[in-house]
Amino acid sequence: MVKVCQTYEVQWDGQITLAALTQRLHDGGHGREALAAILEHRDRELVSEMCGPRNHPHCGGRYRRASTRQRILITRFGRLEVATTRVRDSREGRTFVPLWEEVLIEQQRQYQLDLIWLAIHLVERCTYRNARDELQRCTGAAPSAMTLNRRVIELGATLLEQVHQRSLRAVAHEGDGTKVHSQRRGGPGLRHHEVRLVVTLPRRGRPKVRSLTVGPSWQVHRPMLERTICRDARGQPLVPAAVVDLERGLHEALTPGGGPWQACHVHAIKAVGYALWKDGLTKGEDKRRIMRKVASLLAHLRSSVLLHLPKGERVAIEHRIKETTMRLKQLSTELVNKGLLRASSTVWDISVAVTTFATLALEGITIPWHTNLIERLMGAIAARFKHRWMSWTTAGAQALLILLVMRTLEPKEHRRWWDRQLFAGRETLPNLGVTLTTRAVES
User: Fold this and answer.
1) Of the listed ranges 204-208, 366-370, 433-437, the one predicted with least confidence
2) Contact 432/21 with Cβ under 8 angstroms?
3) Helix (H/G/I), strand (E/B), else coil: 355
4) Fewest CB within a 10 Å sphere: which of 114, 186, 253, 371?
5) In the chain, where the domains are located
6) Pairing mode, if any, of strands 172-181 and 16-17?
7) Which tens digit of pLDDT belongs to each residue from 370-426?
8) C-alpha to C-alpha distance for 241 and 261, rounded to whole angstroms
């Protein structure tokens, strides 16, 4: 009878995490049997190097074999039992497993980080229960929803701390808030968590997450906002601008140094329509005419900047800025005469804020005239979080939110952060050569 014998040879260059080892094996098309064989073979090699061959008389060396035990690990390959040897260090008086000092694992935990990584990527897209079911189908093993929630909170808190502590260069902040259901239902005001998110808009490159909170007010964001560095073309420090909708108090919170703010044109038109409705002008040609006039003035301003800025025609842009502000204030006066006081106040308030993007463009600073970016992020949050049957703890919502937002807004940084978690601080896989030798053996 002929049997197939497979031998695995591994070139070790130092410490490696179990997640890195499973990734290398997965890339090479190997599975659980290969992982078990490699770990047990390496365990025998390390113990033999330290204690000598098995059944060899002890010659008074520093190390000696203590005991053998089965260690249960649950990885992306499923449940795995590995036979490991404990070694006694007579000099330091400690007993340890040499294998786990070279292959780094999460001690005192069965579910290893490579499986948790897959689970959290599923949790970012679907519910904990569905993520667990999908993982069970793919790997044959999956942690409970409570375990997943606990690991999400641990990892999310680490990522959020790094995000809040980093210094960023940007010309503007864009912020918004929303609500998600809360687990606390003890009284009024406790049925929802307030989610508040701020992103930075750099001169070049992709936007980045500046700060995220669940529960606290906008004032908590101030230390993070002050870590954003903004300079003009001559290198002089500036206060980053704020691009926001017309939520009350939002632009003051995002410009703690009293910087400029840009009102979103889309929200500005909607705000005028809502104010007209509150004044009793619910529909009709008069309402449409007023809203068309506001929309036309804003569109004319955007077109003027788009046309004249590349040509360096500063005077034309300055004229259009003054003309837009003047006509909006004239419209505000007309609305007062018609008794539409709320609409008049709204138009007057936005008359300068809607032109900020054009004013900064003259100084070589480009910011958007809309809040499309933050609105898309709010949509991604709503798709995952805003369901009536969901309720969140503060820690759980905040941890999963930062993981979700980072994956959406900064996919490369999100991947690098995960690589550092999986590969013990490295951003790339360590060198590891795995060679499989197959030979036939007659029995």
Assistant:
1) 433-437
2) yes
3) coil
4) 186
5) 2-53+63-115, 118-159+391-422, 265-369
6) unpaired
7) 999 999 999 999 999 888 778 888 999 999 999 999 999 999 999 999 998 988 776
8) 5
